[in-house]
Amino acid sequence: MQLTVQMKLIPDHEQIFLIENILNNYIATVNDIVSDFVSMNQIDKRTSANISTSMPSALKNQAIQDARSVFKKYTKDLKSTISFNEKNPTKKQKTVKVPVLKRPVAIWNNQNYSIGEDSISFPVWKDGKSKKLTFRVITTEYQKALLQNKLGTLRISKKQGKYIAQIAVDAPIENNHGTSVMGIDLGLKIPAVAVTDTQKVKFFGNGRENRYKKRMARLKRKSLGKAKKLKALRKLDDKEQRWMKDKDHKVSREIVNFAKENNVKVIQMEELSGIQTARTSRKNAKNLHTWSFYRLTQFIEYKANLAGIEVVYVNPMYTSQTCPACGKKNHANDRKYKCPCGFKTHRDILGARNIITAPVTGGNSLSA
User: Fold this and answer.
1) Angle, nearest 10°, between helix axes 207-226 and 230-261?
2) What separation in angstroms does the CA of 274 have from each of 75, 255, 304?
């Protein structure tokens, strides 16, 4: 399974200048080659020797490959658009623009960079020649473990003034001989509740802490906005996003570990559209839009897949209302759910339990 390890690059003043040149030259080179291909309406056999840009040969060759990929996608889209216009002459005619890269980026293949202890070394253009330099990066223990696997391309980009290193990694998938199905209910008061089909239950995350942190950040953001301290505002946003991302990593790791401990083969989760509508009150709307359920589900999915656990998404309609004992629908009183038939439980446990038997998006329930 291929994953992307993303790290923050910490260049010194000289390295910043060299990286800026590389990123800008790289996208300019790709755009120039794509423009040539479009004007000729074909891909030629150019090599790094045909490119005069001040970049290492490895980057020139990679730029040529990227330009070929961009051109192939462009021609495919163009053919599709022409076909559509011919079949629909009375409709508004579609057009296809020639792709132009705008965000600074550069890509090295796995033969042209190396990983050290909290560092990456790759060739740049310095003093008129290619030279391999070592750059400091910030890595976690989890990222270091992933980087022990087979490495793919290195991608350096710039986001909000920071330099980001992304490395594609081929991570091995564990053998899984589990037989159980587990449902996960996501929420704001309780980030996640998991229930297995053997009725094992566990709550994950601290919703009260999450809401407090976000409330404090919102107040501080309002104050900084009034004072027009834009730089401090960006730093606060970055800090909050890092904190939220770290929480999602921890919760997702705990969920997958719980699944492995309980012999789970399949994890079922709510389709996101259901979370964003039926499961949200007005007073929680602001929190929902600033907390990424999508990111948490993605973290759960890729960690589960590495553990050999399949992840499927279900329609969450009425999962927090339907009584599993008699099938009647009832509204919960805050977190407490009680049915006239006598069945009662925690609302989120009910949701996770019903997710196990809910219809899979585009199909039937796995456990039906």
Assistant:
1) 170
2) 37, 21, 22
Any idea what the Cα angle at residue 72 is, between residues 69 and 78, rounded to 5°? 140
Letter for the amino acid at 225?
G
Class of domain 180-357: alpha beta
Three-state SS sequence of 282-347: HHHHHHHHHCCHHHHHHHHHHHHHHCCCEEEEECCCCCCCECCCCCCECCCECCEEECCCCCEEEH
Closest to 347 (Cα-Cα) out of 336, 331, 358: 336
DSSP symbol at 184: E
Q: Which residue has the tokens 């834009």?
A: 230
> Do 289 and 242 meet the contact criterion of CB atoms below 8 Å apart?
no
The end-to-end CA distance of the chain, in Å, is 29
Please give the structure tokens belonging to residue 210.
């999450």
Domain boundaries, the chain: 2-170, 180-357
Chain centroid to CA 168: how far? 13
Tokens of 85: 């216009």
8 A C-beta contact, residue 194 and residue 311: no
Quick: pLDDT tens for 270-313. 987 544 433 444 444 444 444 578 889 989 998 998 899 999 99
pTM of the model: 0.65
Instruction: Let me know if 50 is exposed, middle or buried by CB neighbors in 10 A (0-12, 13-18, 19+).
Output: exposed
Summarize pLDDT for 154-164 with one digit per residue, the tens.
999 998 788 99
